[in-house]
């Protein structure tokens, strides 16, 4: 982390920050954020209640590690290009598996993940110690302007003003949004309404230049062991699952749109 201390900026007063004795990140005005023993930094200035808990993040890790999103990870790697030493920030990174799989083990890229849910970052820092993990608000992030070549925003809320600030001049924003068929077998079990991403896509196009979009749709046969984690990985299905109900789910649909924009 010491090597990359220049990427940090105080979320309270916006002044530069230093890593002190590998124990805390401290700004010029002495606002101090401790480095936890697991290696992550908590930049929140007040506690935030999250609907995402430990169980949900464990479930997401099992599902992502199973390879369900492998085509997404490969496509994002392809979009980011060949340049090795990219600085990549994942905003709303959850438990960190997407970022870790995207960068891969041999990558020279520098990965940074931020999420407002401490349980997510705790899990990320336990499993992936070659990435810088931060608890923080992506709308008021603890990073200096023009610090990143790539900002990722996968199935998470966005703040385009902040993403623009964080990107280098020719930086790329890569946002992944669900399309109507995403996990539709589960949606059909629990709700009637269909999902539309129209407004999200419109907002992205208004705010970023040279937008390219890629659609990624596939079905994967489901190993029965993945059914419970798949149901547990979204807060939307909570309280709606009867514990011992047997669920038949032979396959699952992934239907995503990848929006790629250049900094304005
Ligand atoms: C649906 S989850 C997606 C997580 C991860 N990208 C994935 O695909 O597994 C949305 C994430 O956005 C995070 N989030 C929501 N608001 C946030 C904010 N203001 N700042 C940072 N993270 C936020 C949540 O804590 C949660 O981890
Ligand atoms: Zn400060």
Automatic annotation (TrEMBL):
GO molecular function, one term: metal ion binding
Cited InterPro entries: Methyltransf_25, RlmA_N, rRNA_m1G-MeTrfase_A_prd, SAM-dependent_MTases_sf
Keyword Methyltransferase part of the UniProt annotation: yes
Binding site residues for Zn(2+): 10, 13, 27, 31
GO terms of biological process kind: methylation
The protein's name: Methyltransferase domain-containing protein
Record's keyword terms, sorted: Metal-binding, Methyltransferase, S-adenosyl-L-methionine, Transferase, Zinc
Binding site for S-adenosyl-L-methionine: 69, 95-96, 182
